[in-house]
Design brief:
The protein has 397 residues and is of the alpha/beta class. 46% of the residues lie in helices and 15% in strands. It is built from 15 helices and 13 strands. Helix 3 packs across helix 15 and helix 7 packs across helix 8. The longest helix has 26 residues. It is globular, with a radius of gyration of 20 Å.
Length: 397
C-alpha cells in the first residue's frame, strides 16, 4: 500500500476508507485462448480496478511483457488511483497486463491485442475500463482495441486519424521535461541550459523527455537502456541517438564511453531521470547516487528503502504520480474529445499538460513545505485527500 501512517494521519483517513484503498476493487484474471501469435497456446492477462471512487472509467495502460504479474498489475493500478486523483481527473485507477513477449513482431502483437480486446469487450464497451499504451504497447495496439469497439472514447493513445490526440505519443515525456525544468530551478538553482542530465531508459518516456530538455539547452550526458548505454561529457545529440536506436535496437554502442545501468545511476549529474521500469533505485545502489535531483519518469522506479536513503543524503526526488502524469492528462483530453467529437492541436495538448502539471507542482510544493514532508508524501497526501472527499461524497465512507 502506498499510504504510510504519517499520510493517513495527515489526511484523517478513517478505517473504512483505508480498507477500501488497501486492496483492489476488482481483479479480472483471464486467459486469451484465440487470436494467439505463433508459439503461444494460451496467454495469461489481467485487468485490475484498484479504486473506482472517481470513476468509472478506471484509467490505466496495457503493459505487455513476458514477466508481467498480477501483483505488479495491482501495484500499477494503485499508482494510477493516486495519479488520477492528484491530477483531479474523473478517473479511477486501473491497469492491464498481458504476459507475452513485448518484442513480438507488429502483426503478432496485433493478433494478440485482438484476443485481449475480445475477452474484455464488455469492460471496454461499457466504459468501465479505458486503456492506453504502456510498456510494450503503443498507438498501433490501441487502434486494434478501437477496431473491436468502434467507440472513440473507449481507448486513448490511438493514432490521430481515428480520434487520437496530437501530442499524446510524447505527452508523458513532455510532462517529465516540464516538471524537470521547474524542479531544477527550485531545487538546483539552475536554468535548463545549465543542467546536466542522465537518463535511465530510452523508450517512449526517456527519449521524449530527453528531446524536450535538449531543446531547452540541457546537456544530456548519459543514456542507458536494458543493454547498457553511452556517456558523452559534451552532451549527446538526442535526435541522432534516436536514429541509432531505431536502426540497432539499443543506445549501447553509440560512441562515447560505454556505460552500464548501475554506472549511470551513480553519475555526478544535476538531474537523474529513471525512465525505464520499476524498482531500479534500491537500497543496494541508492547510496551511490550523486545527482542532486531525481525526476521519476517511470512508475515506481524507487523502492521505499531507497527513498529513505536518498532523503538522508539530501537528494530531492519528485515522484512518479506527479512527474509522469502528462500521459493521463492528455488521455483525459482525448477521452473527452472522443465523446464530443471536437478536435485539438498539438500545441494545445502541450499547453494543457504544462498548465496542469505546474499547477499541481506548486500545490505539492506548498503542502510539502507546510507539513515538512517529502514531495512524494505530499503528493500522496493531496491525492488521498481528494479520494477521501470523493468517497465521502458518494456515501462510501
Amino acid at each position: 500500500m502506498l499510504l504510510d501512517r504519517e499520510i493517513v494521519r495527515l489526511v484523517g483517513m478513517n478505517e473504512k476508507a483505508l480498507m477500501l484503498l488497501s486492496e483492489p476493487d476488482r481483479v479480472i484474471d483471464f486467459k486469451i485462448r484465440r487470436h494467439l501469435p505463433p508459439g503461444y497456446e494460451v496467454v495469461h492477462a489481467y485487468v485490475v480496478y484498484h479504486n473506482a471512487a472517481r470513476g468509472p472509467p478506471c484509467k490505466g495502460g496495457v503493459r505487455m511483457s513476458s514477466d508481467v504479474t498480477l501483483e505488479e498489475t495491482i501495484r500499477l493500478a494503485e499508482i494510477m488511483t493516486y495519479k488520477n486523483a492528484l491530477m483531479d481527473l474523473p478517473f479511477g485507477g486501473g491497469k492491464a497486463g498481458i504476459v507475452a513477449d513485448s518484442r513480438l513482431p507488429p502483426e503478432a502483437k496485433e493478433t494478440l491485442m485482438e484476443g485481449f480486446a475480445h475477452e474484455i469487450r464488455y469492460e471496454l464497451v461499457s466504459g468501465n475500463y479505458v486503456p492506453a499504451p504502456d510498456l510494450g504497447t503503443g498507438p498501433r495496439e490501441m487502434a486494434v482495441i478501437f477496431g473491436e469497439t468502434h467507440i472513440r472514447e473507449s481507448v486513448t493513445g490511438k493514432p490521430v486519424g481515428i480520434g487520437g490526440l496530437p501530442g499524446r505519443e510524447e505527452a508523458t515525456g513532455y510532462g517529465v521535461a516540464v516538471v524537470a525544468e521547474r524542479a531544477a530551478r527550485e531545487f538546483v538553482g539552475k536554468e535548463p541550459s545549465d543542467i546536466s542530465v542522465g537518463v535511465h531508459g530510452f523508450g517512449n518516456v526517456g527519449s521524449w523527455a530527453s528531446t524536450f530538455l535538449a531543446e531547452k539547452g540541457a546537456k544530456i550526458v548519459a543514456v542507458t537502456d536494458s543493454r547498457g548505454g553511452t556517456r558523452h561529457r559534451e552532451g549527446i545529440d538526442v535526435e541522432e541517438l534516436k536514429k541509432y536506436k531505431k536502426e540497432l535496437g539499443s543506445v549501447d554502442g553509440y560512441g562515447g564511453k560505454h556505460l552500464s545501468n548501475r554506472e549511470l545511476l551513480g553519475l555526478d549529474v544535476d538531474l537523474l531521470i529513471p525512465a525505464s521500469i520499476g524498482g531500479v533505485i534500491t537500497k543496494e545502489n541508492a547510496g551511490d547516487i550523486k545527482a542532486k535531483l531525481i525526476i521519476e519518469g517511470a512508475n515506481a522506479p524507487t523502492t521505499r528503502e531507497a527513498d529513505e536513503i536518498l532523503a538522508q543524503k539530501g537528494v530531492t526526488l519528485v515522484p512518479d504520480i506527479l512527474t509522469n502524469a502528462g500521459g493521463v492528462v492528455a488521455s483525459y483530453d482525448e477521452w473527452r474529445k472522443g465523446k464530443s467529437g471536437s478536435r485539438t492541436k498539438r500545441k494545445e495538448t502541450y499547453a494543457t499538460i504544462k498548465e496542469t502539471l505546474l499547477d499541481v507542482f506548486e500545490e505539492v510544493l506548498e503542502y510539502s513545505s507546510k507539513e515538512k514532508i517529502s514531495l512524494r508524501k505530499a503528493s500522496l497526501a493531496l491525492a488521498a485527500t481528494r479520494l477521501l472527499d470523493t468517497m465521502k461524497g458518494r456515501g462510501w465512507v
